[in-house]
Backbone:
């Protein structure tokens, strides 16, 4: 009886190990053959990365202050990532304004910002079109089976109906900010890509001409038609496939003679916000990360209360919570980010815009403030 039990256990162990091995092999093949994972930096671009003050000797980038990707993993929460209960996703589509192709025909007098959900924003200013983190795909993952679908099945406007884009800004290479399929569809519409160090390799792997790509370290800037683009620090991490932190992450300042706009990218709360505010503030408008947070990764994403404080730190006249309203990437209720941010904004007397996806924000003219999420 004991011998049979031992034999059974051996067979089970062999089966389990074989299954794990097969999964590992399939995973390795997928990562090494699928274009979604991008490319690796080589040559002069690699030398430039290695000379960055923000680069470690071990081949990875670092934050300005101690930053842990995990601040206390709880195994008990793991199963919850695979469920949509507890209001983690909305019941049906959320409100959205569908835009006609003619939407972009008239040039706004003041900067106009249109939210596509999550951290994707189309900015029109000074006669220029700027698309920030254009993740327009259905799932923020390298394969549809590896992520949760977009809350709304349709975008506010199709990619085909978008106008020519002067600059695409990328904050970092995570799938919910840099999407292979979106870049494939957009690349012929885009004149220039401004990206943090290391991200160029992904784009060139996907067929974007290297002449259209400019890489930035923190505090580096470029002037385009009188508009200054500055790559500023963020407190986060990067990685596609099995790699981590071998490309930089960034926030962006967009500043002209008449306007100043800030985009936080993904970031935990940190001292960099005050430094950015002191160097480039005040900002007419700031798009600030607010969503996909949890105490288990408290250094790399802000709580809503920290988001509002960060907008004070950068000296934003008006702010908008982003990084919510499109995907489930954390365990909080889908409305939790905006509800908590609204409460803190009222407490600190911070002016906050809350547009519906597709609704225009015109700086100094129209700041939508309806509580549309309560109607879902």
Residues:
């Amino acid at each position: 009886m004991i011998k049979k039990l031992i034999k059974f256990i051996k067979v089970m162990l062999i089966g389990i190990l074989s299954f794990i091995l097969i999964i590992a092999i399939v995973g390795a093949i997928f990562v090494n053959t699928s274009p979604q994972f991008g490319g690796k930096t080589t040559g002069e671009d690699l030398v430039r990365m290695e000379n960055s003050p923000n680069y470690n000797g071990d081949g990875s980038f670092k934050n300005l202050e101690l930053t842990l990707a995990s601040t206390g993993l709880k195994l008990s929460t793991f199963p919850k990532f695979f469920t949509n209960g507890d209001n983690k996703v909305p019941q049906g589509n959320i409100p959205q304004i569908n835009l006609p192709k003619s939407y972009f025909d008239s040039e706004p007098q003041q900067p106009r910002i249109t939210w596509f959900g999550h951290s994707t924003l189309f900015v029109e200013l000074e006669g220029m079109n700027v698309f920030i983190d254009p993740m327009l795909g259905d799932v923020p993952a390298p394969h549809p089976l590896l992520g949760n679908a977009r809350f709304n099945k349709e975008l506010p406007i199709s990619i085909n109906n978008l106008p020519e884009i002067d600059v695409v800004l990328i904050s970092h290479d995570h799938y919910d900010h840099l999407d292979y399929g979106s870049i494939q569809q957009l690349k012929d519409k885009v004149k220039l890509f401004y990206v943090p160090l290391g991200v160029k390799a992904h784009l060139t792997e996907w067929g974007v001409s290297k002449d259209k790509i400019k890489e930035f370290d923190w505090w580096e800037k470029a002037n385009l038609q009188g508009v200054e683009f500055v790559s500023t620090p963020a407190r986060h991490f990067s990685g596609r496939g099995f790699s981590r932190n071998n490309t930089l992450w960034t926030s962006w300042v967009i500043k002209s003679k008449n306007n100043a706009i800030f985009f936080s990218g993904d970031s935990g709360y940190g001292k960099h916000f005050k430094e950015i505010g002191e160097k480039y503030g005040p900002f007419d408008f700031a798009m600030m990360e607010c969503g996909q947070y949890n105490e288990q990764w408290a250094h790399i994403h802000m709580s809503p209360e920290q988001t509002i404080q960060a907008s004070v730190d950068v000296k934003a006249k008006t702010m908008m919570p982003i990084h919510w309203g499109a995907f489930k990437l954390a365990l909080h209720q889908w409305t939790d980010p905006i509800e908590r941010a609204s409460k803190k904004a009222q407490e600190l007397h911070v002016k906050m815009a809350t547009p519906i996806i597709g609704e225009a924000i015109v700086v100094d003219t129209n700041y939508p403030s309806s509580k549309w999420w309560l109607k879902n």
The chain has two domains: 1-33, 82-375. The CA atoms of residues 133 and 170 lie 5 Å apart. The chain has a mean pLDDT of 92. The two ends are 60 Å apart (CA to CA).
